[in-house]
Amino acid sequence: SQTIHQWPATLVQPVGSPLSLECTVEGTSNPNLYWYRQAAGRGLQLLFYSVGIGQISSEVPQNLSASRPQDRQFILSSKKLLLSDSGFYLCAWSHAAVFGGETQYFGPGTRLLVL
Amino acid sequence: GEDVEQSLFLSVREGDSSVINCTYTDSSSTYLYWYKQEPGAGLQLLTYIFSNMDMKQDQRLTVLLNKKDKHLSLRIADTQTGDSAIYFCADVGYYNQGGKLIFGQGTELSVKP
Predict the structure, then answer these.
(1) CA torsion angle A70 A60 A18 A113 (round to 10)
(2) A94 and B98: CB-CB below 8 Å?
(3) Taking CB atoms and an 8 Å cutoff, what residues of chain B touch A100?
(4) CA-CA distance, A70 to A18, in Å (whole number)?
(5) Count of beta carbons in the 10 Å neighbourhood of residue B85
(6) Which of A51, B34, B62, B89 could form a disulfide with B22 if both were Cys (CB 3.0 to 4.6 A apart)?
(7) DSSP label of B81
(8) Closest-CA residue in chain B for A111?
(9) DSSP assignment, residue B104?
């Protein structure tokens, strides 16, 4: 069966510091991968998605970047964190290019607090 | 672009039925989803319905789809305190290589004993 991991679970970082959040998927190959942010108001904002190694699409301009160095690894980064980067970051995966492959499965999330 | 709307709050008594409503704008949707988020956790896929169906039942959960009105609902029978959570409705928006989900703002269900 497939599982999705995120770490760290919680992170407190000062403004201006770098960020690296990691997401890995087990039990499937060539998944589509997604990064979402959930701000305090609860709405989910899609930040990035990836359909393959090295292929990243950005949904909104921001202070963050994403990379996919391996098939089942998705990394969210920032060179300098802003206060507004605080939130709950969720990684998700879906089966690629199959009918019904839109179904997304979410990881446990990383709570980021920027002070 | 596509949009999904939900009411923000619902409060029910334990044992009652809960009905969470959602409207969407994209008429080409193939699947519509319900996710549940408990405090501090990720989103858990609850159920989904294929667009050529009007209803889907899964134990205490009943999903109703009215394509004409672009209205989706989730009914939870015999609601328990463990059902307290935020429920997200999601529609599918497409890009070249696949589908991405468009989420509503979530409905916070509060179950009172």
Answers:
(1) -110
(2) yes
(3) 30-31
(4) 21
(5) 21
(6) B89
(7) G
(8) B40
(9) -
